[in-house]
Model the fold of this input.
Amino acid sequence: TQLLEQSPQFLSIQEGENLTVYCNSSSVFSSLQWYRQEPGEGPVLLVTVVTGGEVKKLKRLTFQFGDARKDSSLHITAAQPGDTGLYLCAPVSGNTPLVFGKGTRLSVIA
Amino acid sequence: DAGVIQSPRHEVTEMGQEVTLRCKPISGHNSLFWYRQTMMRGLELLIYFNNNVPIDDSGMPEDRFSAKMPNASFSTLKIQPSEPRDSAVYFCASSFRTGQAAFFGQGTRLTVV
Done:
């Protein structure tokens, strides 16, 4: 059984600060998806990382896939209130449905 | 495309009543998923379909839960009878293929009193 852990569970920071959240698994997976969920909405895909060691940037968000493809991180530079939400990771193993971590709940205070 | 459409957005019902949640996936998507989200357990997969056929329902908590997908554009999740512990937000999602990016509806917030 794959164990999936996201940390920290909760994060409250001031606008302008930097932060990193983590997604760790006990298994190797073929790719990993990151989603953001805003209050009252469903999760929305941010990015998919595929290659071990891959780094992808989405404006102020930087996603990294671990070399061993068992972990990933999301770094946000100069956080803004609009970044507030629940950040979910979902590792992908072949043709199986997405299983999500419990997420990191981020609150950015103006 | 309007995205994944779920109805109702909110449902309040009494314990013992039947509840039916509805989902219209994105046209052309071959996989449909039902998830349940609570603070304690996060986002849990209940059941998923490929090409309208149920593939894995091992996440369905009890026999009180059932799901159908009579055609490519419609699915239902039914709870009968409902119990207070079923209170949660239920999401439907679809994707072109299982394992690819999932597109979620806005969810149905269910409260069983």
Remarks:
- Chain A has a mean pLDDT of 94.
- The beta strands of chain A are 4-7, 10-14, 19-25, 31-37, 44-49, 55-58, 61-65, 71-76, 85-92, 104-109.
